[in-house]
């Protein structure tokens, strides 16, 4: 008895459904934009507050809270109904945005980013669930593709918008703009989205969600151990590593016994699932995790303003769109995803290995070409982990498998951001004092850099370029790990639509 699939859409009137969909896409745009829009403004924020060593935490605090809250929100929607869970998530995100815009220190900003992430996770999960209530399966596929376009648009517009707003109205405006938008979306959903009482009461795996969040947080803190505790071998850092290992083991133990686990352990019986998760982690590390560092690199080594640096991100996003559209069509036509996983990792490995050799005077056109190559690399395999795990998982585990890919991608980004931040901070702390006329290299905003004498500006640019070289080599090593994993993957032939329908009909008959 599969009553959930066959029920009538939540809203009968087509026009009202479209207006609601528009509100949902605005909320999604707001939540996904927030990681990208901050990137080009970050050097200005660091210039105001200092604490370059905590630069990465502005991104990773948001992503950590986002990924930790996502598994719980899906079940809460099933338990209490989508409407109020979705509205709560938007309210939390809006309050978090207001606190970010009014932040008085780096620590306040990081704490407010956690609050934003707790709301953002709920927005991203609830949107797909509400779409499932609003549209019938065939219609839904079309609207989900519009959601993907919104995700791509936020990646394209974010850095440009963040840089421009930072230049014109100050960095606080990029957070405060969410407040009126959040209020409008909340009002629209309150008035127009009907409340549907959930038909079933799921068992929420709170213990699994908490242990998974603690494990990921421990890895991120350990990766940042040099900056936080002075050394990776300090007692505090070793304690965090031990705590993380304990949480990971406890999580496996809990998931094996949970009635409705976040990630069913049976998925790992298929080696393809584990390999695709590794690809997803490496992809998150270099696709999402690198955004903020590209912005810092462009503004410190080339002297570009925040808005000009944002414009250069169009090449990166253009590459992602081209790669993604090409791969989507070819995978659909040929039914094989392994070649795209290999091509993707190879493109990004070459791009980062070359970027590691870049010095302060390198032409911007050359850097732009490398960003385009990396963008094409990201795009080629953007859909691969999702398509792969959905094909590898049993029908009842497809949702959990897709969620695991999203979590691993966000987790990979959070961990990588901390590693990159530790590399930059360690390198700059060694050379920051040796530049005449610069008291503290970390407190230089792009505007202050532009006002420096030519020789001093060149010294600062070279200092940053030498700090970024090991960071890009680390990213190249992560991409190379993704390449090796992609080579090991089985060259699976995806079933055609007709075969899939036959197998689904057989499964229904068996039930």
Summarize the structure.
The chain has helices at 3-6, 14-37, 42-49, 55-80, 82-101, 106-134, 137-169, 173-176, 178-192, 206-223, 225-229, 235-257, 271-287, 291-301, 306-334, 338-355, 364-380, 384-392, 398-431, 446-451, 454-488, 497-510.
Layout: helices, strands, pairs:
Blueprint: H1 3-6, H2 14-37, H3 42-49, H4 55-80, H5 82-101, H6 106-134, H7 137-169, H8 173-176, H9 178-192, H10 206-223, H11 225-229, H12 235-257, H13 271-287, H14 291-301, H15 306-334, H16 338-355, H17 364-380, H18 384-392, H19 398-431, H20 446-451, H21 454-488, H22 497-510
Describe the protein in words.
The chain has 511 residues and is mainly alpha-helical. 78% of the residues lie in helices and 0% in strands. The chain has 22 helices and no strands. It is globular and about 70 Å long. The chain starts with a helix and ends with a helix.
């Amino acid at each position: 008895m599969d009553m959930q699939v066959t029920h009538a859409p939540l809203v009968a009137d087509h026009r009202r459904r479209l207006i609601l969909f528009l509100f949902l896409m605005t909320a999604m745009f707001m939540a996904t934009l927030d990681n990208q829009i901050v990137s080009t403004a970050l050097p200005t924020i660091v210039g105001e507050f200092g604490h370059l060593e905590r630069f990465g935490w502005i991104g990773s605090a948001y992503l950590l809270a986002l990924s930790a809250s996502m598994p719980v929100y899906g079940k809460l929607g099933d338990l209490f109904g989508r409407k109020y869970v979705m509205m709560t998530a938007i309210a939390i995100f809006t309050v978090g945005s207001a606190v970010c815009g009014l932040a008085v220190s780096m620590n306040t900003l990081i704490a407010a980013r956690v609050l934003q992430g707790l709301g953002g996770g709920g927005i991203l999960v609830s949107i797909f669930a509400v779409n499932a209530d609003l549209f019938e399966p065939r219609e839904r596929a079309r609207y989900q593709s519009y959601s993907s376009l919104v995700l791509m648009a936020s990646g394209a517009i974010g850095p440009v918008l963040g840089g421009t707003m930072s230049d014109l109205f100050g960095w606080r405006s990029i957070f405060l703009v969410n407040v009126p938008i959040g209020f409008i979306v909340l009002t629209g959903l309150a008035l127009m989205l009907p409340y549907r009482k959930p038909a079933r009461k799921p068992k929420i795996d709170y213990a699994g969600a908490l242990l998974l969040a603690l494990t990921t947080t421990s890895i991120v803190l350990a990766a940042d151990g040099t900056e936080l505790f002075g050394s990776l071998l300090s007692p505090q850092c070793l304690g965090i590593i031990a705590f993380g290992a304990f949480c990971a083991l406890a999580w496996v133990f809990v998931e094996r016994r949970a009635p409705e686990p976040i990630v069913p352990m049976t998925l790992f019986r298929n080696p393809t699932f584990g390999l695709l998760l590794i690809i997803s982690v490496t992809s998150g590390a270099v696709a999402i995790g690198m955004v903020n560092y590209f912005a810092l690199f462009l503004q410190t080594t080339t002297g570009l303003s925040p808005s000009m640096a944002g414009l250069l991100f169009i090449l990166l996003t253009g590459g992602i769109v081209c790669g993604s559209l090409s791969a989507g069509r070819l995978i659909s036509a040929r039914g094989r995803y392994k070649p795209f996983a290999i091509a993707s990792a190879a493109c990004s490995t070459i791009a980062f290995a070359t970027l590691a050799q870049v010095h302060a005077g390198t032409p911007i056109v050359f850097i732009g070409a490398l960003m385009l190559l990396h963008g094409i690399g990201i795009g080629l395999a953007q859909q691969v982990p999702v398509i792969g795990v959905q094909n590898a998982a049993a029908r009842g585990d497809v949702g959990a498998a897709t969620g695991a890919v999203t979590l691993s991608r966000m987790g990979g980004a959070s961990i990588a951001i901390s590693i990159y931040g530790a590399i930059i901070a360690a390198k700059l702390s060694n050379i920051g004092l040796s530049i005449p006329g610069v008291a503290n290299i970390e407190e230089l905003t792009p505007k202050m850099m532009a006002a420096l004498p030519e020789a001093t500006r060149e010294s600062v640019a070279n200092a940053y370029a030498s700090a970024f070289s090991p960071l890009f080599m680390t990213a190249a090593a992560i991409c190379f790990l993704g390449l090796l994993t992609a080579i090991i993957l089985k060259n699976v032939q995806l079933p055609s639509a007709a075969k899939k329908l036959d197998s689904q009909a057989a499964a229904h008959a068996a039930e």
